[in-house]
Structure formats: C-alpha cells, structure tokens
Amino acid sequence: MPAIKITPTRVREIIDEINKWDTKLTWKALCEHITVIYSFDKTISRHTLLRYRAIEEAFNKKKERLRKKTTSGEEFSGDIQKARQEIEKLQAEVEQLEAKNRKLMEQSARWLKNISAMKGIEVINLEKPTEEVIKIYQELNKPLIKLERSRK
Hints:
This protein has 152 residues and is mainly α. It has 2 domains: 1-74; 79-144. Helices cover 66% and strands 0% of the residues. Helix 1 packs parallel to helix 4 (53-72). It starts with 7 loop residues before the first helix and ends in a 12-residue tail after the last helix.
C-alpha cells in the first residue's frame, strides 16, 4: 500500500484539529483521529506527520499549552470554556503565522541580496514563467555567504 501523502491544505486542516484539541494530546491519539477524519485505509503514522514541520510545531505548542492549563488548575464552565478554547486556537494560529512571516522575511532579504549580485536581472523579467526564471529563482534561494570578521 502506498505511503499516505498530505497536501498543504490537509496540513492546515490537521493543524486546526490540533489547535481544537482539549484533552490529553498524544501522537497515537492524533494519528487515530486524523485517520478517522480522512477515512484513510490504514492508520497514519507519527512519522508521516513528523515530515511536516508545521504539524510538529503545532503539536508541541499545543502539548505545552495543555500542560500549562492542567498545572494551573483552572476550571471553566460552558461559554467561558468555549471562549478560552477559541482564544487558545487563535493564539496558536498567530504564533504559526508569525513564524511563517519571519521565514518569508528572511527569504525576501536573501532574494534581494542575491538579486543585487546578479548582472542583467530585473524584477520585471521574473514575472515570465520560463526555464530562465526557474534558474533565477534557484539562484535567489542560495544561502547567503557567512561573513567571518575578526574582532580586534
């Protein structure tokens, strides 16, 4: 049977499921839950989920929040509990979006630095989907050179 593949849309949906979680969170429970939701033929493995950094980060952060919640001994009722869950879900989403934003900002800085070093390249030329543009994007994604400066 082929390996279970997760689309980017499903990654976001799985993260939403993690953020909604309100009982003890384990990889086994999450895998079983995801298998039921998507009606997979076999149980999805923890290792399959761990291939996606966003899922792993969401899992670890939610686990940490659940741990803090149980140690604080807070008890909520009805609507307050639902509001608290929604706030936790939104806070988790904000953290994930901030992390994604940081990565995109780093990529933008890297691209600007790399494009400034490339001769004959204009941003306008990058809008045409050709093999040349693909090569340019590969050049843009090269890591920046680390500067080794001695402190005297």
